[in-house]
Every structure is written in C-alpha cells, then in structure tokens.
Amino acid sequence: IRGARSINEAISIISHFPRTAGWAYVLSQGRDRAVVETTASEIAIRRTSDPFFFQTNHVGTPPLAKKQIFRGAGNWIDTFERGERLAAFAALNSTARATPEKMARILGDRSRAAVGATRALSVEAVAGGTIAKLDNIQSVIFDASRRRLWVAVGSATQAPNETHYVEYQWSDLR
C-alpha cells in the first residue's frame, strides 16, 4: 500500500491481497480521502473530500454494516454515539483547522455533554457515548498535508489519551 501512487491504486492493492478478517484502511491524498472497509471476502469504500475525516470502531458503509458483529449492545450503542459526537465536532469546526492539540483533547473527551459544552457543564463518564474509550489500545492523529502523525499508546493502567502523543514525520517511518 505504501508504494501506491494514488488512492485508486491503494484500493486496488487492498482488494487483491488475501484477508482473513475485517479491517478498515484510512487513506488520504491531497483533498481525496477514503476508508476501505473489508471482510475476509468483501470490500466497501467510503470516499470524501471533507477536511475532517474520521473512522470509529464500526463499519460505515451500508453493504458491510449489516454483517457487523458487536460484542454486546453497550458496545454497539457506544461506537455509534462516538461517531455522532465526532460528526457534530466536524460540523461545528468545518472552517477551523483541526490541530493535533485540539484532536488530542477531543480523543480524550469523556464527557456526555453535547459537543461544544464547557467542562463545567459536562459529566465525566467511562462509557456511553464518550469519545475516549477505556479499551482503546492506541490513538493516532494524522496531518497528511504536513506529513506528520502523533501516536499515543495505552498501558495496563492508562488509556492512550491519558499518556502523551509522540510526533513522527512520514520520513521517520520509512
């Protein structure tokens, strides 16, 4: 995938290699963005040129959504609520640049208040529509236009958003 010269070429590569399970590949090139969602035997693509683009822990393409399996009702509801909160953030901030600092705060958000409410009005929670999740293993923020990314890794006692993000340049990863 790293050698692909376009999103279409990356999609072609993904669609032709063998898979044993579902996965979501987030791709970006200029203003073109895509999530390629896969199962062991199928592929579905969600594309956009929206400046704020995200993928949560559930399938977003209708052809694969009906086949998704969740561990329990709470997990199912929670992941959709996370998506709704992120979409609301995107709508409120459609003209503002999403900085890594702003994104780290959002990814660490455990409030149940409406997006944009002050901390004084929000209720801290560990589940139920919070963006931050106790069972997240890793959190990554990408700024493709500047070829940078930030990674936070959780531990046995801390979620990724409770640690710190380490910045990498694209060239650091080659």
Structure description:
This protein is α+β, with helices and mostly antiparallel strands and 174 residues long. The chain has helices at 7-16, 62-65, 73-92, 100-107, and strands at 23-29, 32-38, 43-48, 138-143, 148-153, 166-169. Helix content is 24%, strand content 21%. The strands form two sheets. The chain has a three-stranded antiparallel beta sheet with strand order 1-2-3, covered by helices on one side. The protein has a three-stranded antiparallel beta sheet with strand order 4-5-6, covered by helices on one side.
Q: Gist?
A:
This protein has 174 residues and is an alpha+beta fold. The chain has helices at residues 7-16, 62-65, 73-92, 100-107, and strands at 23-29, 32-38, 43-48, 138-143, 148-153, 166-169. The chain contains 4 helices and 6 strands, in the order H-E-E-E-H-H-H-E-E-E.
